[in-house]
Amino acid sequence: MKRPLIVLMVLLLVLGSAFWWLVRDQGGGEAGKKDLLVHCAAGLRKPITEIARNYEEEFGVKVNLQFGGSGALKSQLQVAGGDLYLPADQEYIDEVRKEGLLEEAIPVARLTAGLVVSKGNPKGITSLHDLKREGLKISMGEKSASVGKFTWSVLEKEGLLGAVEPNVVVTKPTVNGIVEDVATGAVDVSLAWDAVAGNFPEVEWLAVPEFTKRTKRASIGVLKSSKDATRALHFARYVTAKDRGREVFLAKGFEIPDEGDVWAERPEVTLFSGSMLRPAIQERVREFEEREGCRIATVFEGCGTLVAQMNGGITPSGYFACDTKFLTKVQDRFFAGTVVSGNEIVLLVRKGNPMGILGLEDLAKAGVKLGICDSEKSALGELTGTMLERRGVAEKIEGNVVVKVAKGDDLVSAIQARSLDAALVYRSNVLASPVTLEEHEIVELNDDLAFAEQPYAVGKETPYPELMKRLGEHLSNGEARTRFESLGFRWRLE
């Protein structure tokens, strides 16, 4: 009786092991949950395959690669889902984003199209015009492939399509296929990306001005269908990091964008921001941190104070200024800024306006206790001082200024504590706290000097310029706009 029992136990063990392996291979279990699916243009197969294997070895995450023409892959995204999309042309990224299928995208490499001919160029082909020769056999990418879409379009723009098209004897869905046609002698010439042609020793790639003046950019985007966006972004950052994926792309003959991040498992950056922006962006910054798996140290202060800190030697990775004037003062440390919003200076008075303050001149009335911001510590203070000076009331109201602080929200607190009759603040300072208007009201100035514009800029010395660009996008997308406008900001970003 013992032998049948032993046999039965062995069979159960074997069946159990087989089931475990089957589940693992089908993506079940914890390991399967960490898998990533990347839809990648066939022309980028060699570098991305190597990068994916390196990533798997370093982090133990399986990266499944789906190769094809950029257009064919795009048409599959809505049905197949996945985590990332890496076409050979930025236009596909832009299209997928407009269709609502994609979140972030990070530049990977530059691609230049040209002529691919057999080694030694036996046909003596040197220009696009040579493709009109009678009897020449040409292979081109299908228009669903990025290289095909691009090269067919350029031929048409250059007025050559009608003469060249009769010589096109075959089209292929991927750039690898049309280069192989030349390598095997099936055709005389093809139009393909430079880096892909470099993988075939049997061919030569020839630059032509019609293509070199129109280089294309490949970017990797995180799909909304990803079940683990943070992991997908982790891989995208790895692919595009200077000291990880980009090294592989360079080794494979690709050009890469000038800017790029260094690799870090959890990047740490510092964002300087004018204090008036805190209610609009603080929660957005925390959301970005969680999604990107990074750490952002935020410093909210008056912009005068922030500029003083930067002049003292501190340079943040990003700066969201209260007004363009305060970016201009440190512009040499930042790339060009993008104006995101505008904010008005208004008068905040007690409910019912008991002092009858209707404009700047009324701030000079006897007994008015006025609060303003310090012109050396904040953008609000400098703008307020300029406005009062140009409107000829600065000296008149000087005796009524009983509070001078670094931030507009401190003025709101002071008037709430009944220390003031009036304060010159940003509209957003008032609307940031719902209770403020229960006992106070706004007096509009309607003065073109009472307006500030808020630019966001990325630091030139940051090791994470792409990360900071994405932060800027997150702080200025549609959801962010809703928050800004609810606080009284005017949206300035087109």
Describe this structure in words.
It is built from 22 helices and 20 strands. It is of the alpha/beta class. The chain has 4 domains: 27 residues; 111 residues, Periplasmic binding protein-like II (D-Maltodextrin-Binding Protein, domain 2), CATH 3.40.190.10; 102 residues, 3-Layer(aba) Sandwich (D-Maltodextrin-Binding Protein, domain 2), CATH 3.40.190.10; 231 residues, D-Maltodextrin-Binding Protein, domain 2 (3-Layer(aba) Sandwich), CATH 3.40.190. The strands form 3 sheets. Strands 11, 12, 13, 14, 15, 16, 17, 18, 19 and 20 form a 10-stranded mixed β-sheet that branches. A 5-stranded mixed β-sheet has the order 2-1-3-10-4. The radius of gyration is 31 Å and the shape is elongated. The protein starts with a helix and ends with a strand. About 6% of the residues have low confidence.
What is the overall pLDDT average? Answer: 91
Which descriptor suits the 3D outline? elongated
State Rg.
31 Å
The CATH top-level class label of the largest domain: Alpha Beta
The count of helical stretches stands at 22
Number of domains: 4
Largest sheet: 10 strands, mixed
Write the CATH fold name of the largest domain: D-Maltodextrin-Binding Protein, domain 2
CA distance, first residue to last residue: 83 Å
Strand content: 15-25%
**Which architecture of the largest domain would the CATH scheme give at its second level?**
3-Layer(aba) Sandwich
Low-pLDDT segments, ≥5 res: 5-32
Structural class: alpha/beta
- Helix fraction bin: 40-55%
